[in-house]
Amino acid sequence: TCTGDGSKNPFTTVTRQDIGISLKIKPHINDGSSLRLEVAQENSELAPSLQGVDSSDLITNKRALKSTILAEDGEIIVIGGLLKDSVRTQVSGVPLLRDIPYLGALFRWSKDTHTKTNLMVFLRPTIVRSKH
């Protein structure tokens, strides 16, 4: 890499990032059998590589959700809302002929794949009581 004055820098800075699904729950037990849950849910992934972007500059897509839930002991809770709608285009064709300007369109075809994802989490909080 180069520094601001144009000289070469032999060091590369690396930053570590967690990728994937993360679920953090902070429970609060109320009087009786009710609970208050502070839920933080995150889903992150690497973005598809782009033309002209250096491979060391990776981009991440992150979807996050925070909520506070009031529930009874043993009640099932459903958390949804992390939706993802993606389109992937795949281009293929006859080698060499598909690369000819104008005429190549006759020997080339593309296929779009649509994917919809809805991440849902099911929780059942249970208060474990000590026996005295």
Can you give a write-up of this model?
It is a single chain. By secondary structure, the protein is an all-beta fold. The chain has one domain. The protein contains no helices and five strands. It has strands at 20-29, 34-46, 60-72, 77-93, 108-123. Strands 1-2-3 form a three-stranded antiparallel β-sheet, with no helix packed on it. It has a two-stranded antiparallel sheet with strand order 4-5.
Outline the fold blueprint:
Blueprint: E1 20-29, E2 34-46, E3 60-72, E4 77-93, E5 108-123
Antiparallel strand pairs: 1-2, 2-3, 4-5
Number of strand segments: 5
C-alpha end-to-end distance: 66 Å
Structural class: mainly beta
Number of domains: 1
Give, in order, the helices and strands: EEEEE
Largest sheet: 3 strands, antiparallel
| Number of H/I helices | 0
The portion of residues forming beta strands comes to: over 45%
Enumerate the strands of the largest sheet in spatial order, edge to edge or round the barrel: 1-2-3
Broad shape: elongated
Give the integer mean of the pLDDT values. 85
Radius of gyration: 25 Å
> Helix content range of the residues, please?
under 10%
Low-confidence stretches: none
Oligomer: single chain
